[in-house]
Specification:
six-stranded parallel sheet; alpha/beta
């Protein structure tokens, strides 16, 4: 069989049903093989970056490995941003790039030209060297003898341990050669394969120790991170919470691991978190961290005040993330799903009624849902309306900017919904192409929530929505400036709005969408906004709603100032009010 046919057969055996990409001379054989295989589909995007983000959305919504392909040179380099996004957010994906002929490729074993020139072949670029820092594994395969081994190895590594992206670069002249895979060496069963510790089992006495801590705790809190979904541990988490009713908070990436209907869901923590969540975490006497890496955006700069009177347990697949920012009392390296499965075999006898009552007062006092009369919180109202009229199973794909924080604060997750953020990389322009992959991976409708800045970065992917007739709803939170950076310029750069408002403009998104053949609306008044949101979400037709925010005063609040403990967020509460909420001793200065 042809090498390119064999590559696609391997993807199919690994349950990959879609490959996203853009064709070029050096990946044409790969795409031809996809098109000729009945069990996998080629989805053509308008830009390679769109293909990469679509592969990420497919992986996160389906639970399978995502896949994208591009040609050599600029095609491959256009994949770098989504590759980095997958790496930092632990998304399993394989990126297959075509390369120039082996005799033109500087790094290929058959290349006779060893001179230190910058480039030999047209559109040659060393994509392996460029992506080694943002992949779990990247390799140039330049001989038939290595193709089976390296392909199996890459697919295995993508899902082994902490998941992430891999890249295989394949010269064009190798792709159309013949291969008998049964005669080639396999990665599986090799000494290298056996060296991986596939079972990272957690000791039973460690699980029992955590159960004892839970049973003794007066104010336990569970912090949920993106590792819950990455590990496929949602069902195990639900069982634990049903048996214990422990209050939970979540990081940005952990938002969709718990529904809003869970009574003791206190919400989003971090620099722009919900005040009720921050108060809950600050007053804990036991904090169990599940798959959250505790970066500065989650815990603030004052790490010594973080959960300062709590016994801290951290469970993470990546040993390098444990004890990195915060001193942990009980570090546990291992799979979160396995940890929860074992913990659920132990009877928990929690007695935390007083604590539950206390956290509910936080929730009642500082809700993230705002009335229409509160014009300062109009964006949160809009997010609440999108949430209210969304349905179970919707894939919520959120871009980067102020709207991302409004969504984290005010979107109430329903059963079966996913909320897909770009977390570690924070890549503007991710939402629309991510939605393409997400709606195909989950076979459910996708909802895009984007700002005017991020939406313009990959706006060309609207053509894919029209061509494919995809069930994607797009809500553009349009304030006609780049709000997140503008907020920083207001505070620290004397309102010098260069690039965010000055020398920046916004087109008519309604006109652009209509040019692509997509139904669209432009709205600005709250009464009209609610009517359009409700009407739009009653059907699955592809649609864009351009929401013009009323003025340029829209900010994200509350927020954590750099020199304050987590519970003391701006705008600051009166000191007496804050002290009344504290179970532990407040910090005086």
């Amino acid at each position: 069989m042809k090498v390119s046919d064999y590559i696609i057969e391997c993807l199919v055996k690994n349950k990959i049903t879609k490959v996203y990409g853009y064709i070029g001379g050096n990946n044409a054989h790969i795409m031809d093989s996809i098109e000729n295989h009945s069990d996998i589909e080629m989805v053509n995007t308008i830009h390679e970056q769109g293909a990469g983000f679509a592969a990420e959305g497919y992986a996160r919504s389906s639970g399978n490995i995502g896949a994208a392909t591009a040609t050599s040179g600029p095609g491959a380099t256009n994949l770098i941003t989504p590759i980095a996004s997958c790496f930092y957010d632990s998304v399993p994906a394989i990126f297959i790039t075509g390369q120039v002929n082996t005799y033109e490729c500087k790094n290929a074993s058959e290349c006779e030209n060893n001179s230190p020139v910058r480039q030999i072949g047209f559109q040659e670029a060393d994509i392996v060297a460029m992506t080694k820092a943002i992949t779990k594994y990247a390799v140039l395969v330049d001989t038939i003898d290595d193709i089976r081994y390296e392909l199996e190895k890459a697919l295995f590594i993508s899902e082994e341990g902490r998941k992430g992206p891999v890249l295989i670069d394949i010269p064009i002249d190798l792709q159309y050669k013949d291969i008998n895979p049964d005669k080639e060496r396999s990665f599986y069963g090799s000494s290298e394969h056996k060296s991986y510790d596939e079972d990272m089992k957690i000791k039973k006495d460690s699980i029992e120790k955590i159960a004892t801590l839970i049973n003794k705790a007066k104010r336990p809190v569970i912090l949920l991170g993106g590792g819950i979904r990455t590990a496929g541990a949602k069902d195990e988490l639900d069982i634990l919470l049903k048996n214990s009713n422990i209050p939970v908070v979540y990081s940005l990436m952990g938002k969709d691991s718990i529904e809003a209907s869970y009574k003791y869901n206190l919400g989003f923590i971090g620099a722009y978190g919900n005040r009720c969540a921050s108060l809950t975490l600050a007053n804990a006497d036991l904090l169990i961290i599940l798959g959250a890496r505790l970066d500065a955006r989650q815990i603030g700069r004052q790490t010594k005040t973080f959960a300062r009177e709590a016994t801290i347990v951290q469970v993470d697949i990546d040993k390098h993330e444990i004890n990195r920012k915060v001193k942990v009392d009980v570090p546990i390296q291992g799979d979160v799903k396995y940890f929860l499965e074992q913990l659920n075999t132990i009877k928990l006898t929690t007695n935390v009624e007083d604590w539950q009552e206390k956290v509910l007062t936080y929730k009642e006092s500082y809700s993230s849902l705002y009335t229409i009369k509160d014009e300062e919180k109009m964006p949160n109202q809009i997010i609440s309306l999108i949430s209210q009229y969304s349905k179970s199973g919707d894939q919520i794909c959120v871009d980067v900017g102020l709207h991302q924080m409004w969504t984290a604060q005010s979107f109430e997750v329903k059963e079966g919904q996913r909320v897909l953020f770009s977390g570690g990389l924070g890549a503007m322009g991710c939402a629309l192409p991510t939605a393409i992959g997400a709606t195909m991976g989950a076979k459910n409708r996708a909802i895009v929530i984007a700002g005017d800045g991020g939406f313009q970065m990959n706006i060309q992917e609207l053509e894919v929505l029209r061509r494919r007739g995809l069930a994607i709803k797009i809500f553009v939170m349009n304030n006609a400036f780049l709000g997140m950076v503008r907020q920083m310029q207001t505070e620290f750069l004397n309102k010098n709005y260069i690039g965010t408002q000055n020398d920046y403009s916004v087109p008519s998104f309604k006109s652009i969408a209509e040019a692509y053949g997509i139904r669209s609306h432009a709205v600005s008044e709250m009464s009209e906004i609610e009517t359009v949101i409700k009407s739009s979400l009653e059907n699955d037709e592809c649609e864009l709603i351009d929401i013009h925010l009323s003025d340029n005063k829209q900010l994200v609040e509350p927020r954590l100032a750099g020199n304050r403990p987590m519970e003391d967020m701006a705008p600051f509460l009166e000191r007496e009010e804050l002290e009344n909420h504290m179970v532990i001793k407040p910090i005086e200065n």
